[in-house]
TrEMBL record:
<protein>
    <submittedName>
        <fullName>Class I SAM-dependent RNA methyltransferase</fullName>
    </submittedName>
</protein>
<dbReference type="InterPro" id="IPR029063">
    <property type="entry name" value="SAM-dependent_MTases_sf"/>
</dbReference>
<feature type="binding site">
    <location>
        <position position="291"/>
    </location>
    <ligand>
        <name>S-adenosyl-L-methionine</name>
    </ligand>
</feature>
<dbReference type="GO" id="GO:0032259">
    <property type="term" value="P:methylation"/>
</dbReference>
<feature type="binding site">
    <location>
        <position position="315"/>
    </location>
    <ligand>
        <name>S-adenosyl-L-methionine</name>
    </ligand>
</feature>
<dbReference type="InterPro" id="IPR012340">
    <property type="entry name" value="NA-bd_OB-fold"/>
</dbReference>
<dbReference type="GO" id="GO:0008168">
    <property type="term" value="F:methyltransferase activity"/>
</dbReference>
<feature type="domain" description="TRAM">
    <location>
        <begin position="15"/>
        <end position="74"/>
    </location>
</feature>
<keyword id="KW-0489">Methyltransferase</keyword>
<feature type="binding site">
    <location>
        <position position="368"/>
    </location>
    <ligand>
        <name>S-adenosyl-L-methionine</name>
    </ligand>
</feature>
<dbReference type="Pfam" id="PF01938">
    <property type="entry name" value="TRAM"/>
</dbReference>
<dbReference type="Pfam" id="PF05958">
    <property type="entry name" value="tRNA_U5-meth_tr"/>
</dbReference>
<dbReference type="InterPro" id="IPR010280">
    <property type="entry name" value="U5_MeTrfase_fam"/>
</dbReference>
<feature type="active site" description="Nucleophile">
    <location>
        <position position="395"/>
    </location>
</feature>
<keyword id="KW-0808">Transferase</keyword>
<keyword id="KW-0949">S-adenosyl-L-methionine</keyword>
<feature type="binding site">
    <location>
        <position position="259"/>
    </location>
    <ligand>
        <name>S-adenosyl-L-methionine</name>
    </ligand>
</feature>
Length: 437
């Protein structure tokens, strides 16, 4: 018997208990790697399936009035795009509580995964911003360490993997939708050098996590994070690594942010260079690289428009801004600021002279926020800065669509949009958008 929270009765007297099995027809994809079915009119979000399937699914949550959640137990009628899961540890023949997380589209043919990601992005833009988009999700190449077949099945691309640590010290990914550590024998999404170096059979008693990082130059790094006395992850000691993009080398801490797919940094560097409207670009304007990390996208702008271009890269992690200062050192017009973006923009809006305001309104702003997006406060501040163009690099389609709708309130129109499959076999998708007035 579930707890009282687990049982829900609606106004029609329909009720359900967690653990109940239902037969469901799956009709659509939703954001977040789950799919939509209906049971007696109520939406049920189902995992491990795809549109066009009939499945037997077990309810995992029935406490919400308007929707329930379920996980697939058995596929009764498979969709034509279903394939054997690329990772045995995440496959349907495992009990749902023992299925490894992080590859929630691995049972779907790669081309159709991209179609589903396109639908999620197009649907979010339509629903949240009223925009009809014909965006495609473009494939990207895998890196030099890939095995034959990796490009075809979307494996061998992940250059950063975090393994979690169980109470007894054994390591593994979390199970899907839980914090249960699952021991695994392989990591098919990982870069092949990373996978070979991963200490999957070693014990790390007392550790909080084990990060494995495969930089494009040098050897694979294994970073063991200890726990503090409250069980929180401690920072790992600084470990310098180097990443190469085109002709450029970036220095950074192995534990710091870097784009994850073997081709992601190069793809975004080129996409940002390509999408900027050169006619609207003013090298003397107060150009900004917001959420700048170690300077990847600022460098993309400098390398396209020349080293005298004025640009400030803003990032909250002081270690990342130290590296950004080094990485952009030969670029005379570049500067870096350690600050939260909202605080930086607040000061800009409050303190700028009228001459500086004119330089801001001629600016190109690169915006590459974390998964939650820029949000209303930052978008409203940007609206007050009134830059000439905004290049928005987004790893969450719904946050992007919300922020595009907010920017529309400040007169910005979506001019171009590209999307890239930088996370094959997961539901994630990266997009690069150009907005101007
Ligand atoms: C998606 S990453 C992009 C980094 C960089 N543009 C790149 O491509 O390598 C987002 C970055 O924003 C930083 N960040 C997160 N929240 C922030 C905030 N409120 N203000 C400034 N930076 C922030 C993170 O530390 C991270 O480096």
């Amino acid at each position: 018997m579930g707890s009282s929270n687990d049982i829900q009765a609606d106004s029609n007297g329909h009720s359900a208990e967690v653990g109940t099995e239902l037969e469901l027809d799956v009709t659509n994809v939703a954001h977040g790697g789950i799919f939509i079915a209906r049971h007696e009119g109520r939406v049920v979000f189902v995992s491990d399936t795809l549109p066009g399937e009939r499945v037997r699914a077990r309810l995992t949550s029935a406490s919400h009035k308007s929707f329930w959640r379920a996980e697939t137990v058995e596929v009764l009628t498979p969709a034509p795009e279903r394939q054997p899961h690329i990772w045995a540890a995440a496959a349907l023949d495992r009990d749902p509580v023992d299925r490894a997380g992080g590859a929630e589209f691995g049972h779907i043919e790669l081309g159709f995964q991209r179609e589903l990601k396109r639908q999620v992005l197009a649907d979010a833009l339509k629903r949240m911003a009223g925009i009809e988009s014909e965006v495609m999700v473009e494939p990207v190449p895998v890196g030099p360490n890939a095995s034959p077949g990796d490009a075809a099945d979307g494996t061998g691309w992940r250059t950063r993997v975090r393994l979690h640590v169980d109470e007894d010290g054994s390591v593994g990914p979390y199970a899907a939708r839980s914090h249960r550590v699952i021991p695994v024998g392989d990591l098919p999404l990982a870069d092949r050098l990373l996978e070979a170096a991963a200490p999957l059979d070693k014990m790390f008693p007392g550790a909080a996590s084990v990060d494995i990082v495969a930089p494009s130059l040098g050897t694979v790094q294994i970073l063991v994070a200890e726990q503090d006395d409250k069980g929180r992850r401690r920072h790992t000691p600084k470990t310098l690594i180097r990443e190469v993009v085109g002709e450029r080398e970036f220095r950074l801490d192995a534990a710091g942010f870097w784009q994850v797919h073997t081709s992601a940094a190069e793809t975004l560097y080129r996409a940002v260079q390509d999408i900027i409207d050169a006619d609207a670009f003013d090298p003397r304007a107060a150009n900004l690289d917001l959420y700048g990390g170690v300077g990847l996208l600022a460098a993309a702008v400098g390398d396209r428009f020349g080293s005298t271009v004025r640009m400030t890269s803003v990032e909250s992690d002081p270690q990342a801004t130290d590296f950004a200062a080094e990485n952009l050192a030969e670029w005379v017009g570049a500067s870096v600021q350690t600050s939260r973006v909202d605080r930086f923009l607040n000061a800009l809006v409050r303190d700028s002279s009228s001459a500086e305001k004119a330089r801001q309104s001629a600016a190109t702003v690169i915006l590459d926020p974390p998964r939650s997006g820029a949000g209303k406060e930052v978008i409203d501040l940007l609206g007050a800065v009134e830059p000439a163009q905004i290049v928005y690099v987004a790893c969450d389609p719904v946050a992007l669509a919300r922020d595009i709708a907010l920017l529309a309130g400040h007169g910005y129109i979506l001019r171009r949009l590209r999307a890239f499959d930088l996370f094959p076999n997961t539901h994630h998708v990266e997009a690069v958008a150009l907005l101007s007035r």
